[in-house]
């Protein structure tokens, strides 16, 4: 660590705030809201939340593209402590999910504790005082611990292509949808066929003069078992909470079955053949059918659910181009096979930068090193998706190698069992510095990578966003959700290097 990073000059010290928080939550999306509620429930009051936007919601605030919704049933895509009887469909749409998150935040009095429009610029560990120094656009804060609840899907990804700056038409990413731009009668190029594009393509297809969908790899798109829930259904669910809890359990069991298949790819082969037959019944044109049949095991890439995607591809004004976009010349988009089309607008359905958690650009460990710089040299690693080597008193929600096929809300709640237990132990036992042991995190990740080799993510014959530039699976959890919950039930202090406060260095907030 440099001398500059180790020491603050006298002027800087005078400028530092006097109040020291027990914990600091960065982000007020699904994870940050849940973290604050859990802290309140255990009587942990001296904390602060910052949120860069003017309202809560995270990814459900940012993504407002037409057709945006959840591909996990609403019963499970909600907090276990705050069930809702107001969902209008089995699979909730984006506006309803955002309203739900805002309602929960108000109901549990979280909004009053959030400092909105406050963005974290840098979080650096101060070794001299065992504190986090958090620089934001609203000033500096001090905290004994930090919970980074910024999520893995926050940074929109747009590929760097030759000639892109020569394009004179309209261009935007699905996560930054331009609602002021009228797509009616326009020639539209959609780049990518991931989860977002599957949802918005059917919505914009009727508006377009011509719609060109660029597809590098055909995804698995299976029928969505959705249905509308009218006022009568809502009233029954509200009067009989057992319906909601039974529904939630049934969905959870279904996802457990899917997770079993993901861990045992041989089980998925007949499932894949079944859905290929379903696909053949949906797509009549032989050339289009050939282009949309995936060439990898189902589940290797994210499984997508839709009932209107293939009909949109078969519309007379739509053309699927089974190749990636490689070049732009003025308003002409050029595919990898040389195919050229002139368009008025480009919509990027290219997903997010997920291989390196975006928060890493702003976090510095106890050696003064930027996490993102370290992750450029090697793949990001965490212990139980939560603790990072040489990053003391800090917890990451939905970090590396914690994802299973389940609700992000459910995963966040499971991690918060672990995190809140850790925060309570730090406070109760006067711990000034808690750092995951290097041998613990290394042994854990060796086991994770070993067991991932036989899962569909690694052995299914695809290149997904689960694999980073090094070919390493940085995202998936190789075992069951039940095992993950068991591991996250409580924090084992023996897994950490611990420094306790003494009477001479104890800090009074």
From TrEMBL:
Keyword Transferase applies: no
Gene3D superfamilies linked to this entry: FAD/NAD(P)-binding domain
UniProt GO molecular function: monooxygenase activity
Keywords: Monooxygenase, Oxidoreductase
Record EC number: 1.14.13.-
Pfam family, one: Pyr_redox_3
Enzyme class (EC, first level): oxidoreductase
Taxonomic superkingdom: Bacteria
Entries under SUPFAM superfamilies matching the protein: FAD/NAD(P)-binding domain
Protein name (Swiss-Prot/TrEMBL): Putative flavin-binding monooxygenase
Organism: Acinetobacter baylyi (strain ATCC 33305 / BD413 / ADP1)
